[in-house]
Amino acid sequence: MLSEGELFTGPDPDEMRDFFRKKTKNLVNKLTTVSKAVSELINDGNYIAVGGFGMVRLPTAVLLEIVRQKKKNLGFSGHTATLDCAILVAGKTFNKCDISYVIGLEAFGIPKQTRKYFETEVNYTEWTNAALAWRYKAAAMGLSFIPIRTMMGTDTAKYSAAKEITCPFTDKKYLAVPALYPDVAIIHVHEADIYGNSHIRGITVSDQDLARAAKRVIITSERILPTEFFRNNPENTTIPFYLVDAVIEVPFGSYPGNMPYEYFLDSDYIRNWIEAEKDVEEYKTFINKNIFECKNFYDYLNVNGGFEKMKMLRNIEYMIDNKKGN
Q: What's the CA gap between 137 and 131, in Å, rounded?
């Protein structure tokens, strides 16, 4: 089988090992601001990947700031990417994408302008969600590829950049998917300390592999905790400090997405986004109001209901009747 897709990132493990060998692993205070993290760690032309899953644990503050700072010509990993993808499209920030699950905003529908952007301005290569996860896994293991059986015999494989190989032990056929080493990973977590030790409650999806695969890691966290939270309970360390380059405390940082055990997604906001994308002028007005006219993430929260809205979404997550819980 010959695949036709373009490979956007190099899978050379020795090149990456050399980079990681030289990366500082000092235990230093990495607290910063969203603006500085985006300005200093994300460059035009970089390849970025976002943690979480669909609308769960979105690092919204960083995504909005990427658009606000007008980053361009990025590569983007479309691994379970929904609203994160739509936000980055709003600024036309990326022009190449490894796609597996993109454009659709879950059960809410297809955002029209986002789809049009992919049809006209994005160079993409196709994968499945599992294949992209295995690509992170290969990178986290320090390999150049990993053999898989998903996608075999499908058109997805044809439009990917995978290569068919034969097992030297059994003569069985496999697809070799190349390691994916992003320049920058952006991950939202429940708790972190000032050094970057991070804790995710519930499903981690591919975030542990993603943090190990990326050259630079930006963590946004619902809260900053004392290091003793990790030191006294090592099992709390989902992502260790030496992988992390920047830490920012961003309460309600996944809004309008869901943060498990913290707050539910804002379904009204998602519907408004879908509706705005139906008309070019309404879409421009919506994006200006929600991104460019907000000087930071807290402005954005205030524009969309502020603390009162966040409390309502928290009650929904906790299954508290909002009529009785206010």
A: 10
The burial class, CB within 10 Å (0-12 / 13-18 / 19+), for 177 is buried
pLDDT in tens, the chain (326 residues): 779 999 999 999 999 999 999 999 999 999 999 999 999 999 999 999 999 999 999 999 999 999 999 999 999 999 999 999 999 999 999 999 999 999 888 889 999 999 999 999 999 999 999 999 999 999 999 999 999 998 999 999 999 999 999 999 999 999 999 999 999 999 999 999 999 999 999 999 999 999 999 999 999 999 999 999 999 999 999 999 999 999 999 999 999 999 999 999 999 999 999 999 999 999 999 999 999 999 999 999 999 999 999 999 999 999 998 776 55
Contacts of 200 (CB under 8 A, 6+ apart): 57, 189, 190, 207, 238, 239
Q: How far apart are CA 222 and CA 248, in angstroms?
A: 9
Tell me: the pLDDT tens digits for 231-249?
A: 999 999 999 999 999 999 9
What pLDDT, on a 0 to 100 scale, did the predictor assign at position 48? 98
Distance CA 222, CA 81 (A): 21
The C-alpha angle with vertex 266 and arms to 262 and 267, in degrees rounded to 5, equals 135
Degrees (nearest 5) of the Cα angle 123, 128, 134?
A: 105
Q: Are 262 and 45 in contact (CB under 8 A)?
A: no
CB contact set of 181 (below 8 Å; sequence gap of 6+): 9, 10, 11, 16, 139, 213, 214, 215
Amino acid at 146: I
Q: How far apart are CA 44 and CA 168, in angstroms?
A: 42
**How deeply is 284 buried, as exposed, middle or buried, from its count of CB atoms within 10 A (0-12, 13-18, 19+)?**
middle
Instruction: Give CA separation, 302 vs 95, 99, 284, 298, 305, in Å.
Output: 31, 33, 20, 6, 5
Element (H, E) at 231: helix 228-231
- Residue positions counted in the chain: 326
